[in-house]
Specification:
By secondary structure, the chain is α/β, with parallel strands linked by helices. Helices cover 41% and strands 12% of the residues.
Amino acid sequence: MLAKQWLNNARDVMSNIEDTQMENIQAASTVMADSIEAGCWVHTFGCGHATLPIEEMYPRIGGFVGFHPMIELPLTFFTNIVGGMSVQQFVFLERVEGYGNEIMKGHNFDPKDTMWLFSHTGINAVNIDIALESRKKGMKVIVFGSAGEAKDKKSRHSSGKTLFDLADIVVDTCVPVVDASVPLKNHFDKVGPVSTMGFVTAVWMTVTTVAEILADRGVKLYIHPSHNVPGDTTAHDRLEEALGEYKRRIKGV
């Protein structure tokens, strides 16, 4: 069954992350924990399906305040497939050099912030713009993506750099560069991509490690609670507390 083949491929990705990336995840988590403990932000950015790991972090149940999602609607293409904000426009926009610089102008940053970027191949201009501007502002840059598989791919940015070249820390998501992983009879293209599984696996391994580091340091976390558990009479209060802390921090951004 192709279903089992995809499942095995996804398990292989998760196992490879565990076998090869724990040291990098620990290093990335420590940098992020330092930013959050300082009252600053871990900014998160990606394009296309690389926005999905960003949406996994916050706000959602089990996430906590400290992660600032930077999601640009024209760079997601999830609202429409054709017509306005279509796939064609998205593919064009993520390759436009200078667009990332304009995105950065819409936010305030602190040198103690961290920029966490997601890109499967690391070659498109918008992500590279964001990384270059982040470095200029003194932030640490952390990149998650298929670094090993994409090492021979040429940058689409005039700097000649890929996103992985610009990172202080890279976590390899261990995903095939083609992403789709299951061959299909009578078809050239494969089905069953695994990059989202790789991203989300690495995200939660990282975020839980950040939480562990901060808890060990005695830092209070403002965790987004489940508000659907019968009998939990304080969930609403904890949610309001978390959102209140987010509002307090976001004033500077």
